[in-house]
Amino acid sequence: MNTIKAKQGLMAPWLACALLLCFATSPVCAGDFPAVTAADDSVQSRQFEQVSTLPVMRACLAVLQDIKFQVTESELEPGLIVAQGRGGPFSHTLTISLQQQEQPARTRIRLTAATHGPRRVQPDYTDFYQDFFSQLQQELFQQRTLQ
Q1: Long-range contacts, 114-122 (Cβ 8 Å, 24+)
Q2: Which has the closest alpha carbon to 129: 39, 55, 10, 7?
Q3: pLDDT interval class at 121 (50, 70, 90)
Q4: Which of 24, 28, 42, 96 is the most exposed place for a label (fewest CB within 10 A)?
Q5: What one-character-per-residue DSSP string does the chain give?
Q6: In the prediction, which pLDDT does 41 show?
Q7: What is the pLDDT of residues 36-68, one digit of tens each?
Q8: First-to-final CA distance of the chain
Q9: Contact criterion met (CB below 8 Å) for 60 and 138
Q10: Per-residue pLDDT at 144
């Protein structure tokens, strides 16, 4: 019994140091990333005229599948798609939000990409965004011609 109490007495300082270390190292928070500027927004978003949310969502899902991303969440009502993909030692998370606008009838799409990996490196996704939206336009065109 005395041995257990002695071990517990030795563990307390180590436990306190471990807890202090956990709280001293803060996780990544929103302030660690630069704010979205108007230039970023123009690269990350597109508007499609005379197209409802459902066909755009289907086209987004098709493009994600084509570029080897796995959809982890898809909700039509709020217009949200979340997908995961790998590229080298990094994993990438894509978030697509769709917003239906009534007057004039259009759907606005916003694509956000984030990298998760061994370092806090946030690559420039400009080319990726342009390629994604180019493929999305092709997919929407194909959907229209098949109808």
Answers
A1: 115/90, 115/91, 116/90, 116/91, 116/92, 117/89, 117/90, 117/91, 118/89, 120/28, 120/32, 121/90, 122/33
A2: 39
A3: low
A4: 24
A5: -HHHHHHHHHHHHHHHHHHHHHHHSPPP-GGGSPPPPHHHHHHHEEEEET--HHHHHHHHHHHHHHTTPEEEEEETTTTEEEEEEEETTEEEEEEEEEEEETTTTEEEEEEEEEEESSS------HHHHHHHHHHHHHHHHHHHHH-
A6: 61
A7: 455 556 778 898 887 888 889 999 999 999 999
A8: 79
A9: no
A10: 82
- Give all domains of the chain, ordered by start, each with its CATH number: 36-146 (3.30.310.80)
Lowest mean pLDDT among 51-65, 67-81, 100-114, 123-137: 100-114
This prediction has a pTM of 0.67
Look up tokens 């965004």; give the residue.
129
* CB within 8 Å of 123: residues ≥ 6 apart: 115
- Does residue 10 register a pLDDT over 90? no
